[in-house]
Amino acid sequence: MEQKFPLPPFTKETALQKVQLAEDAWNSKDPQRVSLVYTVDTTWRNRDQFINGREEVIRFLTKKWEKELDYKLKKELWSFTDNHIAVCFEYEWHDQAGNWFRSYGNELWEFNADGLMQRRLAAINDVPINYKDRKFRDKEDILLAC
């Protein structure tokens, strides 16, 4: 039996843990790793796309991170109940042409009893930004900006 801890019902502490684990996984930019926190038959709405199952999740994330280069994400717990968590997030990335964006969004997550996410609903907006206006910089970027 597949389980991903922490398991519902969530407390504030375990909901915060789940959010941090998700942030860490997505920042790995490893579609296979990320897919393992979802049920085999997971359903997503991501912007205007509908994704069904882990295999589609892997394909979706592979394409995403081929387009969204130098992706860096920060998630924040918004609320939670027994087996639901709501998060707000922002992430930065650039395209092949070097245009930078900050993407803002909200996600609603529903988990099964084994702690796997069975449903993810995401609303996301992209805002063009200047390179110098980035929030999520690596140490090397900060040194270059000085």
From TrEMBL:
Pfam families noted in UniProt: DUF1348
Alphabetical list of SUPFAM superfamilies matching this protein: NTF2-like
InterPro entries: DUF1348, NTF2-like_dom_sf
Name this protein carries in UniProt: SnoaL-like protein
